[in-house]
């Protein structure tokens, strides 16, 4: 996804580029998040009015975020969207409720963490949600929430009720491949 920890990400280089079957992972940006960016890099996400998806560039058989530099740093690192910042955490909807979820195997930095390390990391994510009013962001941008997939670990309920599914992985593939993010 989306580069959250520069030093680990520079070694891994697993994010910000996608194979054709993983294109549904391309990062989403809110209207606010693209305010100071070149609008031609984005298209409206599905039927949304205030969420956009980045247009990836095809290079050989790989699709790359246009903000990814040759040195594998994010050109808009300080302005990268929540969707990129939050990786490898995600919000998922299950039976009309929204949960904070985590799939350690999707990121080489979080794969194989001890229980204590995972607890520390998830504690940071929970604090980030509270400090940045992410609950409001999710409430107003339902597109940022995935449909729940069985192989994802639920960490905490977000105390939000959603009646409609929003972001959907391709045929249940979500969480089954490594380093497909866009970010960090
Ligand atoms: S998979 Fe994890 S460590 Fe690798 S580039 Fe992505 S965020 Fe960074
Ligand atoms: S962190 Fe997000 S915006 Fe930056 S290069 Fe990666 S996918 Fe693109």
Short description:
This protein has four helices and ten strands, in the order H-E-E-E-E-E-E-H-E-E-H-H-E-E. The chain is of the alpha+beta class and 184 residues long.
Pick out its properties.
23% strand, 10 strands, three-stranded antiparallel beta sheet, 184 residues, binds iron/sulfur cluster, disordered C terminus, 4 helices
Describe the protein:
With 184 residues, the protein is an alpha+beta fold. It has one domain. It has four helices and ten strands. It has helices at residues 6-12, 82-85, 115-131, 134-140, and strands spanning 17-19, 28-30, 42-44, 51-54, 57-59, 62-64, 89-94, 97-102, 145-147, 153-161. The chain has a four-stranded mixed sheet. Strands 1-6-5 form a three-stranded antiparallel sheet, with no helix packed on it. The longest helix has 17 residues, at 115-131. The radius of gyration is 15 Å and the shape is globular. One iron/sulfur cluster (SF4) binds at residues 2-3, 15-16, 27, 65, 67-68, 74, 76, 80, 84, 182-184. One iron/sulfur cluster is lined by residues 2-3, 15-16, 27, 65, 67-68, 74, 76, 80, 84, 182-184.
